[in-house]
Amino acid sequence: MTNTKAKAKPHFSRKLLAIPYGLFLAIFVVIPLLIIFYYAFTNDEGKFTLEYVKVFFNESGEGVIGFFKSYNFKTIMQSLFISLVSTVICLLIAYPVAYIIARCKLKNKSALLLLFIVPMWVNFVLRINALKELFVFLGTYNKSNAWNIVNTIIGMVYDFLPFMILPIYTTIIKIDKSYLEAARDLGSTGAQAFVKITLPLSKAGIASGVSMVFLPSMTNYVVSNYLTFRNVKIVGKLIDDYFMGDLWHDGSFIALLLLLFMFLVTWLTGGFKADEQTETRGTSLW
Amino acid sequence: MVKIKSVLKWSFIVLILLFIYFPIIFLTVNSFNESDMIQTGWSGFSLSHYKYFFDLDNEPLRVVLQTILLAVIVALLSTVLGTVGAIGIFYSKKRTNGMLSAVNRIPVINAEVVTAISFALFVSFFSIDKSTFIPLVLGQMILCTPFVVLSVLPKLRQMDNNLYEAALDLGASPTKALFSVIIPQILPGIIAGFLLSITLSLDDYVIAAYTKPDSFKTISTHIYGLDKNNVVGPQIKAAYWAFTAIIFFIIVIAVVLVNVHSYRNTRSKKK
User: Fold this and answer.
1) Chain B residues touching A29 at Cβ < 8 A
2) Rounded to whole angstroms, how far apart are CA atoms A216 and B205?
3) For B213, phi and psi rounded to 5 degrees?
4) Cα–Cα distance for residue pair A157/A90, rounded to 1 Å
5) Hey, are the CB atoms on A255 and B22 less than 8 Å from each other?
6) How far apart are the first and last CA of chain B?
7) 3-class secondary structure, A42
8) Is B45 helix (H, G, I), strand (E, B) or coil?
9) C-alpha–C-alpha distance, residues B50 and B241, integer Å
10) Residue B204 in contact with residue B138, Cβ under 8 Å?
11) Between chains, do B100 and A219 touch, taking CB under 8 Å as contact?
C-alpha cells in the first residue's frame, strides 16, 4: 500500500512541471495568434468587419479581375516564384551533397558535414552583409530588376542551404545498407537501386527540408531587402510594410493568410507529427 | 570510369563549399583593406577597422556586447523554462503531451515575421512598455524555448527510467531525484538547447525589430539599419567586417580544436 503511494506521488509532481510552459505557450503563442484573427476582422472601433478582406481582394475596385492586377497579388506571385526557384536550387544542391557525404568512405563524415553547417554560426545579417559586399564588388548589386531577383535567390539559397542538407543527410545515413545489398544481389543497377530504395526512403528528409526552405524564403525579407536596396518585395515585406505604415488590420489579414498557408504546408508534409527523426534545426546542429 | 566519377563528386562538394565560404572569406580579406569602400578594390594593408571596432567609444563594440548579454539572458531563461517544460510534457498523459507538443511546434515552423507581429500586437493590446525590455526578452524566448524543448525531449526518451525509481526507493525525495538523477542524464540535451538558443537570439532580426526599446540596438538591427539609412559613415560598416572576420577566425579555431580532440580520442581508444 505505502509502496504504490510513493510511486504515484512523484509521477504526479513531474507532470505538474508542464504547467508553467503550458501557460507560457497559451499566453504568448496562442493568444497572440488569436489577436491576429481579431485585428483581421475588426476595425479601429473594435467592431466586426470584412472591410480588410475586401480591400485585399479588391484593391483597385475592379472586382475579381482587378485582384489579379493588384500590387498585393503581384507581390505574392513574385514571392512564390523566388521561393519556388530557391527551394528547387537548394534541393538540387543539397541532395547530391548529402548523398555524397552519407555514402562516402571517409571515417569522419560528420566533420565533413560540419563544414557545411559552420557558416551558420556567423550572425545571419553579417553573412548577408558579406554577400551584399561581394555583389557590390562584382557590380551586380541593384544593377537591374532581373539582377535583383537573381541576387535575392542566391541570398536565399546561401542562407537556407544547410536547412536542406541536414534533414536529407539524416534520412540517407539511416537507410539500412542491407536493402542496397539485396537490390544488388537481385541484379539491379546502381541507378535502379537509387530510384527504388534510396529516393523513396529519403522522402521524409526532402519534405522536412522543403518546408524549412520554402516558407522562410517567402518571408525572410531581411535577405530580399538587404541584397536589392529594398527593391524586391516578398510576402514577409508586404506584411512588414503594412505594419510599419500603421495599417495593422490589413497587415493582420495577410499574416492570417500566411499562417493558414503555413498550417496547410505543415499538415501536408506531416510536420506536426514529425518526431526527432526529421528534427533538424534542433538536435543535429550541435 | 570510377575515378572520373569520384573526381566529379568531390569537385562538386568543393564547389559548393566555395560558394558557402567565399563571401565570408572575401569580407575577411577586405577587413584588412585600408579602404572602407569595397568598390575601390585593394588599397593597402591596414588594421584600422580592427582598431575602430575594439574602441569602446565607438558603437559597434557596445552593440556587440549588449547583443551577447541579451542572448545569454534569453538563453538562460529559455533553457530553464524549456527543460522544466520538456520534463513536464514527457510525463504528461498522451493527450496533454500531444497538444503541448503541437503548440510547441508553432513558433518553430511559423514565419518569424508572423510570430513577431502577433507578439507585437499582443504587446500593444495589453500596453506593455517596450522600454522595460520585457517584450524583447519574452519575444526572443518565444523563438528559443521550443528548440530547447525539442533538444531535451529525445534525451528524456533515451533515459533509463529505472534509475529514477531506484533513487526514490532508496529514499530520495522527488526533487532530489530530479536534480541528481534526471537532470544529469539529459544534460547534453540541455546544453544543446542552450547553445541553440544563443545562436537563435544572436541571429534574430525580425522579433527584435518589433519588440526592442527604440534606442536599443542588436547586431542584426544595427547593420540592417545602416543599409536602411545609408547616412552613417562607412567606418561603422567596415568595423563590422572586422567583427565578421573575428567570429570566422574563432569558429575555424574551434572546429580545428574539436576535430583534433576527437581524432586523438579515437586514436587513443584504438591503442
Assistant:
1) 103, 106-107, 142
2) 13
3) -65, 150
4) 6
5) no
6) 38
7) strand
8) strand
9) 9
10) no
11) no
Q: What pLDDT is attached to residue A51?
A: 80
Report CB contact under 8 Å: B17, A9.
no
Domains and CATH numbers, chain B: 58-233 (1.10.3720.10)
Q: Closest approach of chain B CAs to the CA of A58, in angstroms?
A: 23
- Residues A227, A228, A230, A234: what is their CA dihedral angle, to the nearest 10 degrees? -80
Say if the Cβ atoms of B26 and A14 lie within 8 Å: no
Shortest alpha-carbon distance between residue B175 and chain A (Å): 9
Neighbours of A123 (CB within 10 A): 24
pLDDT band at A56 (very low <50, low <70, confident <90, very high): confident
| CA B28/CA A251 separation, integer angstroms | 39
Contacts of A216 in chain B (CB under 8 A): 111-112
Alpha-carbon distance of B271 to B267, in angstroms, equals: 7
Confidence (pLDDT) at B35: 85
Which of A182-196, A225-239, B135-149 has the lowest average pLDDT?
A182-196
What is the interface size between A and B, counted as CB pairs within 8 Å?
A: 259
pTM summary value? 0.89
Using CA atoms in the order B39, B42, B48, B52, what is the torsion angle rounded to 10 degrees?
A: 20
Coil, strand, or helix at residue A48?
Answer: strand
The pLDDT value recorded for residue B269 is 65
Residue A270: what pLDDT? 67
Distance separating alpha carbons of residues B104 and B127, to the nearest angstrom: 26
Residues of chain A positioned with their CB less than 8 A from the CB of B100: 18, 21-22, 25
Largest Cα–Cα separation, chain B: 74
Amino acid at the residue B40: T
Q: Give chain B positions within 8 Å (CB) of A16.
A: 88
Q: Over chain B (271 residues), what is each successive 10-residue block's mean pLDDT?
A: 85 95 94 85 90 92 96 98 95 90 91 94 94 96 96 92 88 87 93 94 95 94 79 80 94 87 74 53
ipTM topping 0.95: no
Chain B nearest-CA distance from A282, in A, is 6
Question: Best of A11, A126, A214 to disrupt the B interface by mutation (most B CBs within 10 Å)?
Answer: A126
Q: Show residues of chain B in contact with A243, CB under 8 Å.
A: 117, 120, 210
Write b or e for each residue in B113-139: b if 16 or more Cβ atoms lie within 10 A of its Cβ, otherwise e.
bbbbbbbbbbbeeeeeebeeeebbbbb
Cα–Cα distance, A219 to A222 (Å, whole number): 9
Which domains, from first to last, does chain A contain? Answer: 2-57 (no CATH), 74-285 (1.10.3720.10)
pLDDT higher than 80, residue A59? no
Rounded to a whole number of angstroms, the distance from the CA of A207 to the nearest CA of chain B is 13
CA-to-CA dists, residue A27 to A58, A124, A222, B95, B108, angstroms: 35, 29, 28, 20, 17
CA B175 to chain centroid, in Å, comes to 31
Angle at the Cα of B142 from the Cα atoms of B136 and B145, rounded to 5 degrees? 120
